[in-house]
C-alpha cells in the first residue's frame, strides 16, 4: 500500500495556537450561554437571506484570526 502525499498546509497549525483559539471559542460560547437572555429570539429586521448579504460570496484566500472571526459572529450573527 502506498501513502497519500502530505501537504505542508496540514502541519501549519501550531499546537499552542490551536489550544489558545479553541479556548477562545469555548469562552465565547460560555459567555453566550451565560448571557443568553440578552439575545432576542429573532432579530426585528430578520428576513430570509438577510444575513447572507453580510458575508462575502466566496471564502477568503487566507485565514483570519480567531478574534476577528468571533467578532464577526458577535456582530453579524448574534445581532439583534
Automatic annotation (TrEMBL):
What are the entry keywords?
Decarboxylase, Lyase
GO terms (molecular function) for this protein are:
carboxy-lyase activity
Listed GO CC annotations: cytoplasm
Record's superkingdom? Answer: Eukaryota
Q: Keyword Oxidoreductase on this protein?
A: no
| Gene Ontology annotations of biological process type | amino acid metabolic process
The protein depicted here goes by the name Uncharacterized protein
Amino acid at each position: 500500500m502506498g501513502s497519500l502525499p502530505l501537504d505542508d498546509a496540514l502541519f501549519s497549525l501550531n499546537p499552542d495556537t490551536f489550544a489558545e483559539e479553541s479556548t477562545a471559542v469555548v469562552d465565547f460560547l460560555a459567555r453566550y450561554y451565560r448571557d443568553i437572555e440578552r439575545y432576542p429570539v429573532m432579530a426585528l429586521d430578520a428576513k430570509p437571506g438577510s444575513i447572507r448579504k453580510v458575508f462575502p460570496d466566496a471564502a477568503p484566500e487566507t485565514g483570519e484570526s480567531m478574534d476577528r472571526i468571533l467578532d464577526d459572529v458577535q456582530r453579524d450573527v448574534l445581532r439583534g
